[in-house]
Amino acid sequence: MRQDGGHDIHRNQRRCPVTTVARPTTAPPVRVAAMTDRPLEVGRLADAVSDPRAGGTALFVGSVRDHDHGRSVTALTYEAHPTADAELRRVAQEVASLPDVIAVAAEHRVGPLQIGDLAVVVAVSCAHRGDAFHAGRVLIDRIKAEVPIWKHQLFADGSSEWVACTDETPEAMPCPDAAGRTLGP
Question: Residue 167: which residues within 8 A CB-CB, separation 6 or more?
């Protein structure tokens, strides 16, 4: 052993002071907010909200199920109003402004989906798990209630139905599809 600055150090050891420094992040709180026709990747959104200040991350993954109200669903298509991207970003920014929210990410699919496909993924990170669960619930509930998205469900009996993102489709937001039809219920 030798003396080095008043500390005993073995010959094979190096002196490595440990310093913990809180580094503020420069990343914006809304890391991802988009409508997309590409398959969703849960890990990508979880990574997007990763932050050294976060002690809890809550994820919600919504997938296409094979039934709705007792009827067998075979497939569905999501259509979105042209303002859906902006509305999704607005909702994400408002949730990101909640106390203790560090980061949020959300993506919602548009286009044709099959049973089991991911339709929506939201991720929220906070210092504590309770805040992350709460903010994640607020985020998905507000997306479903406020972002103008319509679901066209196809049933096993050959019938279909349109389901609006809310119980009342806003009259101010008619949404024609590529063929010029107005979407919604």
Answer: none
Residue appearing with tokens 């607020």: 138
Residue 140 burial (10 A CB sphere; 0-12, 13-18, 19+): buried
What DSSP letter does each residue of 22-68 carry, written as one string?
A: -----S-SEEEEEEESSPP-HHHHHHHT--TT-SEEEEEEEE--SEE
Cα dihedral angle (173, 177, 179, 183), rounded to 10 degrees?
-60
- By CB atoms closer than 10 A (0-12, 13-18, 19+), residue 154 is middle
Which has the closest alpha carbon to 132: 161, 89, 99, 88?
99
CA distance 1 to 7: 10
**Beta-carbon count within 10 A of 109 CB:** 24
| One pLDDT digit (tens) per residue for the chain, 185 residues | 444 444 444 444 444 343 333 434 567 899 999 999 999 999 999 999 999 999 999 999 999 999 999 999 999 999 999 999 999 999 999 999 999 999 999 999 999 999 999 999 999 999 999 999 999 999 999 999 999 999 999 999 999 999 986 644 444 344 444 444 444 43
